[in-house]
Amino acid sequence: MMSDAGPKPSVPYQHLYVDDEGVSRFSKCALTDYELKGVGPADPQWNDKMERGEATVVFTVQPVGWVGDWHENPAPQWIVVLSGRWWIEAMDGTRIEQGPGEFSFGGDQGCVERDGKKGHKSGTIGDEPCRLMTVQLHRDPVGRCDFT
After folding, report:
1. Pairwise CA distance, residues 136 & 74, whole Å
2. Residue 30 within any structural domain of the chain
3. Count of H helices and E strands in the chain?
4. pTM for the whole thing?
5. Model pLDDT for residues 104-123, shown as the tens digit of each residue
6. Cα distances (Å, whole numbers) of residue 96 to 20, 42, 54, 124
7. Which end of the chain is more exposed for a tag (fewer CB within 10 A), N or C?
């Protein structure tokens, strides 16, 4: 039997969004809407259940040295790093790096091109491919930190 589930979790993620001027930016957000609940006879676990909707799961392998020049995410999507490392740069110049177990939300659809930049750039880091899992949501983009 489980002893103590501990305090309600707050799990950080980076949210790439489009501001009112059409520029992509990152915001540090956290998933916080957790509920302690069991699944069948299993001990209770913390769950933050997202809104139900259609989605497409895509697994991606970016080769060593891969660079994706300026582009928008193909759909509002959760991006989870499975192995390797990568970087993402927003139009405002903010650059983040992520490794295994880290995740972000790509909601930069609808950017306005500025100085040859639209959306974000990204690429692999190091001497191994970066393996990602994306969950593309079939919905309109969400605003900054709208999953909290």
Report:
1. 8
2. yes
3. 0, 12
4. 0.90
5. 999 999 999 999 999 999 99
6. 22, 37, 28, 12
7. N
Residue corresponding to tokens 């300026």:
70
DSSP conformational letter for 144: T
Token output for 43? 């001990």
Range of the domain at 113: 11-137
Residues forming a β-bridge with 79 = 104, 134
Complete DSSP assignment for 2-57: -----SPP-EEEEEEEE-TTS-EEEEEEEE---EEE--TTSPPEEE-PPPP--EEE
Cα 87 off chain centre by? 12
- Which string of DSSP letters, residue by residue, matches 87-130? EEEETTS-EEEE-TT-EEEE--TT---BTTB-SEEEEEESSS-E
In degrees to the nearest 10, what's the CA dihedral of 117, 119, 124, 125?
70
In a domain, 4, yes or no: no
Domain CATH for 24:
2.60.120.10
The answer to whether position 37 is within a domain reads: yes
Residues 69-109 pLDDT 10s: 999 999 999 999 999 999 999 999 999 999 999 999 999 99
